[in-house]
Design brief:
Oligomer: single chain
Mean pLDDT: 80
Radius of gyration: 31 Å
Helix content: 40-55%
Distance between the termini: 97 Å
Strand content: 5-15%
Length: about 260
């Protein structure tokens, strides 16, 4: 073996830890992207299992890389193996789809609906979803095409609404203001004013004061529900103005349960 052969063999031999350093550099580049990177994408890129990916991210954090953890968007979970640019494109398509005034395009995606007491089960058609979003069916996460949604039925007179469990609470700000106003009026009455005095001072009808003052005697749990937006849909300021609320808390609950 010549001296040249020995030098060539030494030059060809990779340095210990060189591949590791390259992967750490690649990981840092992915982590510092504006769109970030998911555990699933790290598995696809490096072949890492979730615990290995988390350990590598932890090492990056210890080395001074600022890493913020965020929950993946629906688009990211729907196509968890896709890259960040593909997910961003998919998110834009989903936004355009859900913002359309005509809901028929969304309803076309539904394959089956089952309704049981307090529960709606909905299954989307993977083929139609893939065509609508211009993606392959093999990229979709099947579990996200099945939706189980608990619900409650709430009535307002002859109107009935289905309220899903994750629907944001719809607070009746007018009713909340009138409850606060009724408590204010009650304090003024305790101080010696009459219904007529309050009506003249506040430039409202005496009848309105007499009806709305009942709100100062609501049961605490009813007030709590109003503040959380969970009161019956029919329990409004207009409803209170046209009726007299019972003073007994149990009777109040029984009356409101019919709305």
């Amino acid at each position: 073996m010549t001296e040249t052969d020995v030098k060539t063999r030494k030059a060809d031999k990779p340095r210990l830890g060189a591949n590791k350093l390259t992967r750490q550099a690649q990981l840092r580049k992915l982590l510092t992207r504006k769109s970030g990177v998911s555990i699933a994408q790290l598995h696809k890129t490096f072949g890492w299992q979730p615990h290995t990916a988390r350990a590598a991210i932890s090492a990056q954090r210890k080395s001074g890389c600022e890493i913020a953890r965020s929950e993946p968007s629906f688009a990211g979970r729907l196509c968890s193996q896709s890259g960040a640019s593909d997910i961003a494109c998919l998110r834009s398509k989903l936004t355009d789809l859900t913002s359309q005034p005509d809901p028929r395009n969304i309803l076309m995606l539904v394959k089956r609906i089952e309704i049981a007491p307090g529960q709606i089960k909905l299954k989307l058609d993977p083929q139609r979803v893939a065509v609508m979003l211009d993606i392959g069916t093999d990229t979709l996460v099947a579990d996200l095409l099945r939706i189980d949604a608990p619900f409650q039925i709430r009535k307002r007179g002859v109107e009935t609404k289905i309220i899903l469990a994750d629907t944001p609470a719809d607070r009746d700000e007018a009713l909340i203001r009138n409850i606060a106003l009724a408590h204010h009026w009650l304090e003024r009455i305790k101080a010696g004013e009459t219904f007529g005095d309050i009506a003249r001072t506040d430039d409202i009808s005496k009848r309105r004061v007499q009806h709305m003052i009942d709100l100062a005697f609501l049961a605490p749990d009813i007030i709590r529900d109003v503040l959380m937006g969970k009161q019956p849909l029919g329990f409004t300021s207009d409803w209170c103005e046209a009726r007299t609320l019972p003073s007994d808390w149990r009777n109040q609950r029984e009356l409101l349960s019919t709305l």
